[in-house]
């Protein structure tokens, strides 16, 4: 069978769509299927796939906010790539890594649905990242020590701690993977 | 050397082999890790410059320090070659799209393929023959460490590895196993199984299509959840499920043999007869017959044909491979003729070798 859309490549995927209570089958090739149903590959035959969920959410949110100005409906906007939260829901894809910070408040709801209730990463952490987090924690701890030293007028000690902080900050700025933490 | 021998020499990839644990039922294991670079928009929105920068950085890490990888930009390849890589499962159809900037970094033995600028900046993929989830993951993990040491990965303290699509966020890990389940299909068990599997946060689908009408009774089982579970837990759950499916398939095979032995033998030998003699073979028929013959080999009904031949033929009977074998562009009708020819010659080659060893 040939793809219903491009009429070029062989159909390899059957996509079932429910619209107004009617079920429609489309036979698509891999390329067209990935284009029209970006989640199909991940969601298989689940009729309550992410796209449907996300579009329901938009309708719900729009109804709730009917009286409010347009800007609220668009939701947060990513300062780096300009993607709005509403647009993200419509297309189901982020624009850039910074979108995660821009939409941080709303994302647990999204993940709860598309990740079976899970909202927090518990797997592998890149070494450079764990090194960075550890370095940032160490700096915060040293700042406290420095304040204490100043408070008790141990200026020599305070200066030593200050130098240590500066050194850590420098290596963080240089990429963070060379941070020496003992 | 015959044309088919020449073709096979250039086309066979180690993962099509028949070695590996449970290789009678498990065709292959695949691990995929999705990674992205901070400071670059995702491929759906990025500019040419961003694309080139991602490619340059990733290629420098892998092709710089050892020469077992080659970096192949998609626009440097003719369409047929790209399609061959898709049919070998080394790249996705999306990456092969010539309108987009995409590159694949391939290991010499083709067990590792790193897709650059597909949906994510980097997708590390490792394919092993048979059931080898942990080994394949370790290989991918090690490559990930090498890349991570040199590249500014986008990672979030709460959400983990940042990906373009929220269905990959967290570990970015998609682990999948390709299974040949003819007995469970013949006994109409796959619908029930697909439902049960989805409740476990995993998914079963036909590896070349969707749902129950899997081509050649080959199914792909993979994890659906990437967030909130560690890599080890994802792999362990998939391994448990795979082992249960293998057990059920084995039980269904025994039941078929006991209850319908003659009918089953008849079906298998008929399929063997068709593959050895047919002059026109459409994809679905070829796949069904190959599945039967493979089952016949597994059950000891057919002897003297290596299972790896069937693994190969499932791949080679696809359009781009057929055209490479034919050395020319083929219309759909002509493909069916070449498909029959390829299968006939390949099975004939096996039989020929057997005759020789018997002499
Ligand atoms: Zn198409
Ligand atoms: Zn963004």
TrEMBL record, chain A:
InterPro entries documented for this protein: UVR_dom, UVR_dom_sf, YacH
Record keywords:
Kinase, Transferase
Q: Which residues form the UVR domain?
A: 136-171
Q: Where are the transmembrane segments?
A: none
Any one Gene Ontology molecular-function term assigned to this protein's record: zinc ion binding
Do you know which Gene3D superfamilies this protein is assigned to? Answer: UVR domain (4.10.860.10)
One GO biological-process annotation of the entry reads:
stress response to cadmium ion
What's this protein's name? Protein arginine kinase activator
List the taxonomic lineage: Bacteria, Bacillati, Bacillota, Bacilli, Bacillales
Automatic annotation (TrEMBL), chain B:
What top-level branch of life does the organism fall under?
Bacteria
Q: Which GO terms describe its biological process?
A: phosphocreatine biosynthetic process
Q: In what way is its activity controlled? A: Appears to be allosterically activated by the binding of pArg-containing polypeptides to the pArg-binding pocket localized in the C-terminal domain of McsB.
- InterPro entries, alphabetized: Arg_Kinase, ATP-guanido_PTrfase, ATP-guanido_PTrfase_cat, Gln_synth/guanido_kin_cat_dom
Q: What is its EC number?
A: 2.7.14.1
Which GO CC annotations does the UniProt entry carry?
A: extracellular space
Q: Where is this motif: RDXXRA motif of the pArg binding pocket involved in allosteric regulation?
A: 335-340
Provide the coiled-coil residue spans. Answer: 232-259
Q: Name one GO molecular function term.
A: protein arginine kinase activity
Give every Phosphagen kinase C-terminal domain span.
25-252
UniProt binding sites for ATP: 28-32, 89, 123, 174-178, 205-210
Q: Write out the function statement from the record.
A: Catalyzes the specific phosphorylation of arginine residues in a large number of proteins. Is part of the bacterial stress response system. Protein arginine phosphorylation has a physiologically important role and is involved in the regulation of many critical cellular processes, such as protein homeostasis, motility, competence, and stringent and stress responses, by regulating gene expression and protein activity.
Q: Which family does it belong to?
A: Belongs to the ATP:guanido phosphotransferase family.
Name assigned to this protein: Protein-arginine kinase
Phylogenetic placement of the source organism: Bacteria, Bacillati, Bacillota, Bacilli, Bacillales
């Amino acid at each position: 069978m040939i793809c219903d859309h491009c009429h070029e490549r062989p159909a390899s995927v059957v996509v079932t769509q429910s619209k107004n209570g009617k079920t429609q089958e489309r036979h698509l090739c891999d390329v067209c299927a990935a284009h029209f149903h970006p989640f199909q590959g991940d969601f298989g035959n689940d009729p309550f796939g992410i796209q449907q969920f996300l579009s329901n959410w938009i309708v719900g949110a729009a109804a709730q906010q009917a009286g409010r100005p347009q800007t609220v409906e668009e939701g947060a906007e990513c300062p780096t790539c300009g993607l709005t939260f509403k647009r993200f829901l419509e297309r189901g894809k982020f624009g850039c890594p910074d979108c995660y910070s821009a939409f941080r408040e709303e994302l647990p709801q999204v993940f709860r649905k598309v990740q079976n209730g899970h909202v927090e990463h518990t797997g592998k952490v890149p070494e450079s990242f764990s090194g960075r987090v550890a370095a940032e924690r160490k700096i915060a701890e040293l700042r406290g020590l420095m304040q204490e030293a100043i408070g008790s007028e141990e200026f020599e000690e305070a200066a030593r701690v200050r130098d240590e902080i500066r050194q850590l900050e420098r290596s963080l700025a240089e990429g963070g993977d060379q941070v020496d933490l003992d | 050397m015959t044309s088919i021998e020449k073709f096979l020499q250039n086309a066979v990839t180690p993962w099509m082999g028949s070695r590996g644990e449970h290789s009678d039922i498990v065709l292959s294991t695949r691990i995929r890790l999705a990674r992205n670079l901070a400071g670059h928009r995702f491929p759906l929105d990025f500019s040419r410059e961003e694309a080139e920068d991602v490619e340059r950085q990733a290629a420098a890490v892998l092709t710089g320090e050892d020469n077992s990888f080659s970096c192949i930009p998609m626009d440097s390849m003719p369409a047929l070659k790209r399609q061959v890589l898709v049919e070998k499962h080394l790249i996705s159809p999306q990456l092969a799209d010539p309108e987009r900037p995409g590159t694949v970094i391939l290991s010499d033995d083709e067990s590792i393929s790193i897709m650059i600028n597909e949906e994510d900046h980097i997708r590390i993929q490792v394919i092993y023959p048979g059931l080898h989830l942990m080994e394949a993951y370790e290989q991918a993990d090690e490559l990930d460490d090498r890349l991570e040491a040199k590249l500014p990965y986008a990672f979030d303290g709460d959400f983990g590895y940042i990906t373009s699509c929220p269905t990959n966020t967290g570990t970015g890990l998609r682990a999948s196993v390709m299974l040949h389940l003819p007995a469970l299909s013949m006994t109409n068990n796959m619908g029930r199984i697909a439902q049960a599997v989805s409740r476990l946060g995993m998914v079963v689908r036909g590896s070349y299509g969707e749902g129950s009408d899997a081509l050649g009774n080959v199914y792909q089982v993979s994890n659906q959840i990437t967030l909130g579970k560690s890599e080890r837990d994802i792999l362990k759950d998939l391994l448990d499920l795979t082992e249960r499916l293998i057990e059920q398939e084995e039980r269904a095979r025994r039941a078929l043999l006991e209850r319908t032995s003659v009918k089953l033998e008849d079906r298998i030998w008929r399929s063997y007869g068709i593959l050895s003699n047919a002059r026109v073979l459409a994809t679905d028929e070829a796949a069904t017959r190959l599945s039967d013959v493979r089952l016949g080999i597994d059950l000891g009904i057919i002897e003297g044909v290596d299972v790896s031949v069937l693994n190969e033929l499932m791949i080679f009977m696809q359009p781009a491979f057929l055209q490479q074998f034919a050395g020319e562009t083929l219309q759909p009708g002509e493909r069916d003729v070449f498909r029959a020819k390829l299968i006939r010659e390949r099975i004939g080659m096996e039989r020929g070798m057997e005759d020789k060893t018997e002499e």
